[in-house]
Amino acid sequence: MNPAVNEWPKGVLHLAGSEQKFSLMRYAPSAETEYFVQHYWIVRWDLRGREPYHQTVIAHPNVNVVFEKNCTRIYGVGKSTTVRVVQDHGWVIGIKFKPGGFYPFLGDPVSRLTDSSVPLEEVFGMESRGRERFILSAPDDQSMVSRVEAFLVERLPEKDPNVSLVHEMVLSFRDDRSVVRVEDAVRLTGMNKRAMQRLFDRYVGVSPKSVIKRYRLHEAAMRIDQGEVADWLDLSTELGYYDHSHFIRDFKSIVGMSPEEYRKKVEKVAAPGQ
């Protein structure tokens, strides 16, 4: 059985306002697939008789394979926010690969998938409709995850040591708030800047700078969503920004609005009657 992953889903914006629109469950991979896979996720919704809901997400530096009715695809890393329209009723299941974890399946630089998606057939060389129906017809979450895992296990590539290297680097960027610039990442890892950029282009699909920025903004958005921010200067300093205006620019470049505008929108969405 795949245990559920219980943690705040960073990157899902305006989470308080989305709680009545859909459910999100995440499940850990098995020992067979955990070298490549971060977790599996399932979203279910029932908006019959209600308005469609637009959910905004700051993409993580991960490739996702998503099984969805008539729309099963492989999604590369987005450079900014993406919007998913949830309407009527349904469910999807996704495989969220570790940063770098999809490269051994693809065999090409993951950057060719950045800001785009491709059909399952393009990478796995198979007709996807039958497999899509089989997976989505599972009677419960655990059965659906088991069917997705079986699909993946049949196609597991050889383990590539760079997958572990990239994953560890990305985790260190996420957890060490002193890493705000690529130069900080170079200092932390000891890797040449150009070599790091080539590695990330090939295995992650976006630059080290982009990875660092989005993790800082995931944290900022989560803190705002949870109502924990009292002062923008304090927040930017806690996230490792020495220049407050740098934080504001980064936030706006990814989210599309300033932190203050985002907070006002969160408060509006969460207000009774909204």
TrEMBL record:
Keywords: DNA-binding, Transcription, Transcription regulation. Pfam families: DUF6597 (PF20240), HTH_18 (PF12833). Gene3D superfamilies: Homeodomain-like. The keyword Transcription regulation applies. InterPro entries: AraC_XylS_family_regulators, DUF6597, Homeodomain-like_sf, HTH_AraC. Residues 164-265 form the HTH araC/xylS-type domain. SMART domains: HTH_ARAC (SM00342). This is Helix-turn-helix transcriptional regulator.
